[in-house]
Specification:
The complex is a heterodimer of chains A (about 190) and B (about 130).
Chain A lengths: L2 H14 L3 H18 L3 H5 L2 H8 L9 H30 L3 E4 H19 L1 H10 L1 H25 L3 E5 L1 H21 L2
Antiparallel strand pairs in A: 1-2
Helix pairs in contact in A: 1-2, 1-4, 5-6, 5-9, 6-8, 7-8
Chain B lengths: L8 H17 L3 E2 H10 L7 H13 L3 E6 L7 E6 L1 H25 L3 E6 L4 E6 L1
Antiparallel strand pairs in B: 1-3, 2-3, 4-5
Helix pairs in contact in B: 1-4
The chains are: A mainly alpha (about 190), B alpha+beta (about 130).
């Protein structure tokens, strides 16, 4: 069987979220059929992408956008803890306390939104990376610079303090969030 | 029309499932053997890209059961066997299709068709 055809078939099935056992069985059936009739996989089954989609094999629910997003929640909590710790450490060095501004809140909000968006649209993003890597690279860079520009603009312009706390409180809270998340992660099976 | 495909594809789409069920009714067999039997019977070449998605749908619908077996000196084969529901589906679909063919032949031949609508079904009778 044509290795390139098989590879494209496997990649497409993976992008669709199909479990490995089902992919292996489907590929074995292609190999068996082609060895019987002497035809190539392309001739007997058509393009690997179209054939992969036509099979409608069971999808692993653990790879669904919802499941991936849920799995990111602990990571997002850690990201928040990291930001809080970082700001508080800076405030502790500069004094007198930690100022929470709208601009500061926007940066972790954008980070979390980006993580959710990537998880939610993981399949089309991965599909672009696999089949159009140059386009994916250009889009990634443009998106990164656009988001960075928005964050910098917001951070510098939205600088009125919404909330003031002591740097010590911020350090403790940030450390507690990171430590608590790490503790949860250690206990997880 | 390609020489290995004597019938329009839209015609084949309507009959392929019942033909595959009929082949399986004769006993368990594997994909390539099903395709060969259909080709030898005059249906033309049924490509793997058409046949195996259909077999998958039949398996998902509970009409067939599939089992892998070691091949004769080559790759393994996935054998399909009709379930009880599959036999019933074949019986029902074959009867319905036979009636459909009778009706369409009657229309093409210019004979009059009397249609009766009942609560749970519609019947059509070709009259001379």
């Amino acid at each position: 069987m044509d290795e390139e055809w098989a590879e494209s078939f496997v990649v497409e099935q993976r992008l669709l979220g199909v479990e490995g056992a089902h992919i292996g069985a489907a590929l074995s059936e292609v190999e068996s059929h082609c060895s019987e009739n002497g035809q190539s996989a392309q001739l007997a089954f058509g393009t690997p992408v179209e054939y992969a989609r036509s099979l409608q094999l069971p999808v692993n629910l653990e790879h669904s956008p919802q499941a991936v997003t849920r799995s990111l929640v602990p990571i997002m909590v850690q990201v928040l803890g990291m930001y809080l710790l970082n700001w508080s450490f800076e405030a502790a060095l500069r004094g007198p306390g930690l100022e929470i501004t709208a601009g500061r809140l926007l940066i972790p909000a954008v980070s979390l939104l980006a993580m959710v968006a990537i998880a939610r649209f993981a399949e089309p993003v991965l599909r672009t990376v696999v089949y159009h890597p140059t386009v994916a690279g250009i889009r990634a860079w443009l998106t990164f610079f656009a988001v960075a520009a928005i964050c910098v603009a917001a951070f510098t312009s939205l600088d009125e303090a919404i909330w003031r706390v002591s740097a010590g409180w911020g350090l403790a809270a940030g450390a507690a969030v990171l430590t608590g998340r790490c503790g949860v992660g250690d206990r997880a099976p | 029309m390609p020489s290995d495909q004597p019938w329009p594809s839209e015609w084949l789409r309507g009959v392929l499932e019942v033909c595959v069920l009929r082949v399986l009714a004769d006993g368990e067999t594997y994909g390539y053997a099903i395709a060969s039997r259909l080709a030898d019977s005059g249906l033309g070449v049924v490509k793997g890209g058409t046949l195996y998605p259909l077999l998958n749908r039949l398996e998902s619908a509970g009409l067939v059961i599939a089992q892998w077996r070691a091949g004769d000196g080559g790759p393994g084969r996935k054998y399909y066997v009709l379930t009880g529901a599959g036999h019933q589906e074949l019986q029902d679909t074959a009867a319905q299709r036979s009636h459909f063919v009778e009706v369409t032949e009657g229309i093409i031949a210019g004979r009059r068709v009397v249609v009766e609508h009942e609560a749970d079904r519609t019947t059509a009778e070709v009259v001379s």
